[in-house]
UniProtKB/TrEMBL annotation:
The chain crosses the membrane at residues 79-103. This is ALG2 alpha-1,3/1,6-mannosyltransferase. It comes from Gorilla gorilla gorilla (Western lowland gorilla). Keywords: Membrane, Transferase, Transmembrane, Transmembrane helix. One of its GO terms (molecular function) is GDP-Man:Man(1)GlcNAc(2)-PP-Dol alpha-1,3-mannosyltransferase activity.
Amino acid sequence: MAEEQGRERDSVPKPSVLFLHPDLGVGGAERLVLDAALALQARGCSVKIWTAHYDPGHCFAESRELPVRCVGDWLPRGLGWGGLGAAVCAYVRMVFLALYVLFLADEEFDVVVCDQAICIPLSLCSEPGHTVLSSVMC
């Protein structure tokens, strides 16, 4: 009986999980995204990370084990006044990233984990039946 339940659990298709993150560097939010992505991948889920900035030379080593796609790196990360405007720029980059993934990337996914609340309404525009999770980091 227990073997049958184990086989049934293994035969259930695992969801495809898409992470949207503004800048995949070496901070605490990035560590959280990578740990969650690696844990889901270890459980058999298909995991992809989309980001607006990714430098393989300045990131956690584990990020190189995952499929990471980068779009919008040409958008500014700040306005040049000692870090002022970084939040506004991150917001704009995430809007661009979410729109790109929804309308141009041709990605298949079941679940979206988004690091900023802006992605929730944009992700809901994709297709019915998708689950959207937000992890807003302040």
